[in-house]
């Protein structure tokens, strides 16, 4: 392989890594945005509960708290989806212990968990 072919391959790899970094950064920004929204909704639910308690009418806050709780659960599902996208972009999978590994790993290097079935799936995931 000539020097110029190696340079071309290195440049292509650098471009691929830069694109991967850009995608991961974009997804992480979306995750951070959703997490801030979760915090805001938790604050609103708490404020509604405290106001109702102070007024002596906790039942009045039930609807407001339930609405915020539903929105929080939806946001948490979105966050999980975005985190899965980050792992896919990075060609990684998450172990049940929370450690991230290459998609092809058969065992977790942190806890020793053995991935069953297709090596490209994590715990509880279905193969392609």
Short description, anyone?
With about 130 residues, this protein is mostly helical. The chain is about 65% helix and about 5% strand. The chain has a two-stranded antiparallel ribbon.
What would you note in describing this structure?
With 128 residues, this protein is mostly helical. The protein is built from two helices and two strands. Strands 1-2 form a two-stranded antiparallel sheet. The two termini are 36 Å apart.
Beta-strand residue percentage: under 5%
**Major pleated sheet:** 2 strands, antiparallel
Mean pLDDT: 87
* Poorly predicted parts: 119-128
Number of strands: 2
What is the element layout, followed by pairings?
Elements (H helix, E strand, L loop, with lengths): L2 H53 L3 H31 L2 E3 L5 E3 L26
Antiparallel strand pairs: 1-2
Helix pairs in contact: 1-2
List descriptors.
128 residues; 66% helix; 2 strands; two-stranded antiparallel ribbon; mainly alpha
